């Protein structure tokens, strides 16, 4: 049996949540390859770079949660309608803390972020595609995002959640238990093989959109040069 055929059969025998995880693993890793991402994780990203990331998250999650509410009663899209997950209220408080009370007048999405948000809104007419975007964002926040929370709090000296509420999920209780329940909800969906494959491809696309956004943050917020990078 050829490698491609074996991989295809293994994928077909996996649950939907396993396919979303396994078939996007390479794309997920690429998101951490940008200088901006590495600086964030290492605690060397200047505060203004962190603020720029929070701004982009605000526009993305506004789109996600608009679609989530629109699909709340749909048998597919509603499977992941968990209002306790919603991040926009936390992002609004973070931006008020980071940028001041007039923050709405000062923020704007990068072109890559705008395209990403438009794609998310497009999935309002394709609930399985929305699931793909929902999964890539929120499961990431509940996993690697918790490491970022610790780094951000330490790097910028934030206290009591101010400035990093986006990463605080205190309404969920046990995060591992919630993630297990989330995956179980995905696996209970009655999606045929073709629709699952299409949703997995949309998840890969979501990672590509995210990578384009991070690359644009790289370009718009270049990191300070260190002696190791000096010419």
From TrEMBL:
Keywords: Heme, Iron, Metal-binding
Pfam families reported in the protein's UniProt record: Heme_oxygenase
Domain of life: Bacteria
InterPro entries registered for this protein in UniProt: Haem_Oase, Haem_Oase-like, Haem_Oase-like_multi-hlx
PANTHER family in the cross-refs: HEME OXYGENASE (PTHR10720)
Name the UniProt record assigns to this protein: Biliverdin-producing heme oxygenase
Source organism (scientific name): Thermobifida alba (Thermomonospora alba)
């Amino acid at each position: 049996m050829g490698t491609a055929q074996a991989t295809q059969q293994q994928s077909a025998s996996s649950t939907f949540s396993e396919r979303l995880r396994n078939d996007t693993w390479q794309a997920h890793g690429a998101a951490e390859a940008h200088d901006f991402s590495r600086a964030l994780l290492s605690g060397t990203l200047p505060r203004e770079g962190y603020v720029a990331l929070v701004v982009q998250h605000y526009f993305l999650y506004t789109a996600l949660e608009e679609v989530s509410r629109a699909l709340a009663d749909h048998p597919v899209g509603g499977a992941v309608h968990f209002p306790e997950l919603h991040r926009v209220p936390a992002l609004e408080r973070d931006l008020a803390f980071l940028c001041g009370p007039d923050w709405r007048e000062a923020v704007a999405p990068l072109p890559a972020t705008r395209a990403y948000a438009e794609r998310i809104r497009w999935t309002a007419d394709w609930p399985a595609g929305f699931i793909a975007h929902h999964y890539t964002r929120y499961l990431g926040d509940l996993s690697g995002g918790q490491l970022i929370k610790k780094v951000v709090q330490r790097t910028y000296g934030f206290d009591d959640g101010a400035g990093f509420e986006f990463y605080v999920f205190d309404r969920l209780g046990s995060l591992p238990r919630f993630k297990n329940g989330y995956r179980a909800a995905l696996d209970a969906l009655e999606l045929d093989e073709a629709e699952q494959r299409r949703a997995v491809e949309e998840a890969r696309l979501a990672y590509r959109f995210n990578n384009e956004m991070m690359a644009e943050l790289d370009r718009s917020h270049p990191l300070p040069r260190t002696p190791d990078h000096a010419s």
